[in-house]
Amino acid sequence: MDRLGFFKQGLSSVLDAASSIIGLKKAADSFVEVVDEALSNIKTDIGFHLPSIDSAIYAGGASVLENLAAIGYSTIEVGTYKNGKLHYKSPEELKELARKANIKITAAHLNHLLTEAEKEGAAMNEGATMNEGAEGSEADARSEEVAMSKEDNEWWLNAMAICKDLGCRYVTMSQFPENPDQATIARYAKYFNAIGQMATEQGMRFCFHPSQAELTKNEDSASIFEILAEQTDNDKVWFEIDTFEATEAATDVCKLLKQQDKRILLLHLHDYGVAGDSGKIDFDTIIKEGIQQGVADIFIEVRDFHLPAMNCIERSYYYVDNLPSIRY
Q1: What is the per-residue pLDDT across 287-311, written as a single tens digit (0 to 9) for each?
Q2: Residue 26: is it exposed, middle or buried by C-beta count within 10 angstroms (0-12/13-18/19+)?
Q3: End-to-end Cα distance, the chain
Q4: Which residue has the higher pLDDT, 123 or 274?
């Protein structure tokens, strides 16, 4: 039985017992209290970032997903999208593997940078807009029109349709140009807004996953992430924060969660190896703050394997699963 089924069955039993003891009306009056209490004890889902073991998925996807489910993982975040396939598998094949393993696909990493041709076209259109003397909202609207080319629009529509069919609630982009100037950052803010609008129309949310480079503060200006957060719309663009990348950038994740006012929807629980082994990252405090600030899903990510991959993945799960912040 899944957690929702367990909750419903338990709640039904509680209400039946209450009605027989204290009367139906009083039981009904106590319904909200019962729900609140039950919800406070539901276990937080722990997901896994599947690109961590992409080669294993390519070699034997069925056994990998079944092993993840046996460990206790209930959701996965997929990636490695190319030519309509994820992890070199068709959407139908991946969906069937997840169904057989009884594990849900809830998020996907989709990376598609603007091409140089698009940038040149955007610059030409912006120049034309300035020459025409457009001002204010009219100029903004014309600039928004060139945020994405027709080809890229089709790329995102196709990718999002696949992710929606897989059951994803979130699509995340984790790539960004190296050493961008202010104009490039502004261009990508518009690009992210356009992607976010598309995701919203598909019933999903678009998140940006900053790396150490985007999170690192400059001496004389804000970080790239801070600029993007300021220049993107908070009803179109959300964020996924990686604890390893943030630590490497000397960024306080808890402070970031508070500053972004519920725009951080996803967390990568990512250490320097097995989760918890380095002692450098306070996962429990981060998860607690994340719950307070509206984080919807957490995914364990492992990149540095000191032991066989599945051993590291299992040890990471057990460490996180036993944190006080992971509620039952």
Answers
A1: 999 999 999 999 999 999 999 999 9
A2: exposed
A3: 15
A4: 274
Going by the DSSP 8-state scheme, the letter that residue 43 receives in this structure is P
Pairing of strands 85-86, 81-82: antiparallel
Q: What is the DSSP string of 89-137?
A: B-HHHHHHHHHHHT-EEEEEE---PPPHHHHHHHHHHHHHHHHTT--HH
Nearest to 58 by CA among 35, 37, 79: 79
pTM above 0.85, yes or no: no
Question: Using an 8 Å Cβ cutoff, are 58 and 97 in contact?
Answer: no
Using only the alpha carbons of the chain, give its radius of gyration.
22
Handedness of CA 129, 134, 137, 138 (dihedral sign): negative
Closest to 226 measured CA to CA, from 204, 251, 191: 251
Separation between Cα atoms, residue 216 and residue 250, nearest integer Å: 7
